[in-house]
Structure formats: structure tokens, C-alpha cells
Amino acid sequence: MVNFSARFATAQEIVDWDDHVTSNPNGGNMLQSASFAEVKSHFGWAPRFLVIEADGVQPSYNLALEKSVPGLGKYWYLIKGPDVGQPEHLLPAAEAVREFVRRERLGVFAVRVEPDVLASDDLAASLTGAGLVKVPDLQPNDHTAILDTTLDEQPLLRSLHTRGRNAVRRALREGAQAKRVEPTDENFRTMFELMNQVQDRNAMRLRSYEYYSMFWRAFVEAGQGRLYFAYEDGVPAVGAFVINYGKKGTYKDGGSIPRRKQYGDSHQLQWQAILDLKAEHGITEYDFCGTPPASELKNPEHPLYGLGLFKTSFTKTVVDFVGCYDVVVDRVRYGAWARLGEKVARNLWDRKHHQPFY
């Protein structure tokens, strides 16, 4: 077993944070970025920048979000981390973080980890056998559809699922208008309204406009985000905010009006975004950011069933990551958190701020 150790990043490493994260063993994730850390710092979380390393292994740079819980201490959410290149490195990397917070007496009673490591029965058994506690997933792309974008344009188009390929071709043939637009406040508000219309259809809860506009602007200003609209009768009918982070593209947010006349406009929008990210940033994969688990794709009762149909019309490569586990640092305080503390903290935060806790 590899012996990992953990430490806080140096000041210079934080300055160069995105360069380090995108060089991680698994290429990093946009939710570990400096932009995301800045956004979360305005919504109740304190960013902590961690380095997990071992001899002969590529160092892993990970964002930990810290929140203080009255009466219990500090709680860390290692979002999309630890980023490790091999499944067998996950447990020793998590143990290194636990030993670090104990050694430095940081007052952390638990660390929630959420790595982009493929789920397996053997891995789940090893994690729970080591005392990690399986908890519900938090991020939508703990189960997601990922498109390999390394092919040239025409071979890539032919590689899409038949439904997606036909939709893109029809939209192109019929002159669907999908294009990148300026990141103005007016366009951000339009995007938010399009997202609200999807919310009405699917009973999905959105965060506030303040949150989304801050998120979008932070990634735009870092050169990592862009906004697209597809138009119907000259009016935005479909919107998407997409992100480039290292060699990964991500479909982060989307919205649309119901009962549109133009067939394939949402497919054409995604296709245009993918081509742009390939040409300008050389992305090698595109994450559609959220589907049902692979075993639930055909279940019409799953809340993400409709989105899953759309996203798997591009690629049938649906991956299930291991999801969230709690690394227990202090068993007494964590017991209180697991029994009632987390539920109370989430409810109080929601009532006070009208925003999700995480």
C-alpha cells in the first residue's frame, strides 16, 4: 500500500491552484477550482487547499470546504476528492487526510469525500471495512454521461447515439440557431428564467439568482465558462452554461421553454459547445453532468429520467462513481452529527438563507 501524507498548500501553490488541480492523477474537476472556491466562500464555506502526496506518485491537489457546526466543531467536504489515479489509492489518501487533521489539531470531526473513482462492490467493501460511512450522494455528476471528444468532428458526430446524431443533423439542416452569447447580466437573467421553466416542469429546486450569477461570472472571468442560447423566433428558447477545466468540458447548467417548434435545438446547442471547446481548449471529454445511475436509466419514475434520455442520446457511456463517504475523525461528535446534527444544520441553514446547505 502507498503511504500518503497530507498538508496545506503553500501560498504559491494556491496562486497556481488551477494549474496544479488540472495536473492531478485524474485531471481534476471544475468543482475543485479556484473559481468554485471563491464562490463557495460567499455562501458559508471556508476553502482549505490540500495537497496529498506520496513518493513516486503524482501529487493530488484538492479543495476542502470547511463549515463550523456549533457544539461539534468543523466539518470538511472534500468535493470531488481525493483525486487519485488508482482505486486502491483512495483509502490511503483518505486516511492521510484523517491523520493530517488529527495531527494538526484542526478541530475537524469528519471529512466527507466524494472522489471521481468508479464504483465497485470490492471498493465499497474496502471503504466500509475501514470505517468510512456511506452517505447519500451530493453532486449530480456522481452518476453521469461522459462523451469521449478525441475524434475529429465528423467521426465524432458519427459516434453519437443514433437519436442524438439525427437530432443534430436535422437541426443543422433546418437552420436551428445555437450560438455563444455575451456573459451580460441581461443574458444571465434570461438563462436563470429558462432554468426556472425547467424547474416548474420537474419540481427541481434552484439556488438563488445571486448564486448562479456569481458562479457564472467567476468562471467566465477565469476564462473557464461560457453561455450559449438556441433561439426560436429570435428569442432564447434553450440555454446552457458550459465549462472548460483542463482537458475536461462540463455541461453545468441548462434550461429551456416547453413545447418548442424547432426539433433538435437543444442537441445543436450542445454540439456547438462541444466543437468550440474542442477547437479552443482541446478537451478530451465532455461531462453532461448528471444522469440516473446506470441501473436506473430505464426507470421512468427516477427524477432524472428525462434528463438521462437527453444526455444518453449523445453517449451511452454512463459512469457511476463511488459517491460520498464520511471519514470519521471523532466518533463521539460524528455520532451526534449523523443522528441529528446534519439534519438540524441543513434545516436551519435553509430557513435562514433559503439556500441548500452544501
Automatic annotation (TrEMBL):
GO terms for molecular function: aminoacyltransferase activity. GO terms for biological process: cell wall organization; peptidoglycan biosynthetic process; regulation of cell shape. Keywords: Acyltransferase, Cell shape, Cell wall biogenesis/degradation, Peptidoglycan synthesis, Transferase. It holds the Pfam family Acetyltransf_6. Residues 164-290 form the BioF2-like acetyltransferase domain. It comes from the Bacteria. The keyword DNA-binding does not apply. Signal peptide: none annotated. PANTHER family: LIPID II:GLYCINE GLYCYLTRANSFERASE. Belongs to the FemABX family. This is Lipid II:glycine glycyltransferase (Peptidoglycan interpeptide bridge formation enzyme). It comes from Falsarthrobacter nasiphocae.
